[in-house]
Amino acid sequence: MMNRRTCVTSALAAAACSSLPAPAIAVPAVDPPPPAGPIPGLTLAPELYPTVVRVRRDFAPGSIHVVSSQHYLYYIVRPRVAIRYGVAVGKAELVYRGEAVVGRKVEWPSWKPTPEMIERNPAAYEKYADGMPGGPKNPLGARALYLFHGNIDTAIRIHGTTEPNSIGRSVSNGCLRMVNDHVIDLYNRVALGTPVTVY
Length: 199
Fold this sequence. Notes:
This protein has 199 residues and is mainly beta. It has 3 helices and 11 strands; from the N terminus they run E-E-E-E-E-E-H-H-E-E-E-E-H-E. It has one domain (11-18, 43-198): L,D-transpeptidase catalytic domain-like (Beta Barrel), CATH 2.40.440. It has helices at residues 115-120, 122-125, 180-189; strands at residues 51-54, 64-67, 72-78, 81-86, 89-90, 98-107, 143-149, 152-159, 170-172, 176-177, 195-198. The strands form 2 sheets. Strands 1-4-3-2-11-6-7-8-10 form a 9-stranded mixed beta sheet, covered by helices on one side. A two-stranded parallel sheet has the order 5-9.
């Protein structure tokens, strides 16, 4: 009998089954993104770099699943095969959970803090109330996937970051941060209308 780690099979942590050993059948070839290029001061744990992993069969190819408690985003590329990326998620009281779709994709997006962000921390955000143009210093980083419910913008983004050492932590105002090199790779793979579930 195979020796396998116990996996969580509930709907809320289904992607954790990625630790199953390789099956007898061949895994379709998937090119993961390269590791992040040289970033001064970046100390990213090895498990937070993009990795091809096994997941449950019932995850639809082309969908995104985020397990907030584990700081992982899974993009399903084939039946039972995903690329797993490390992410930063919202602080405890600001974790976004739910279902959405990718309603907009933007390269080097502009950024404007929400009224709630300004209210929570005016010292940090009030000076950006009129917005900030896209570019290397913009907190949304190199790419952003905008999450929508129908035609309604949730204000939640999957985006790059100017703080790559925050990956693997619960520090954001609700958005899902990725290393810029990794979000560029995800952006290039993902189509508008992609379903996203955040647990």
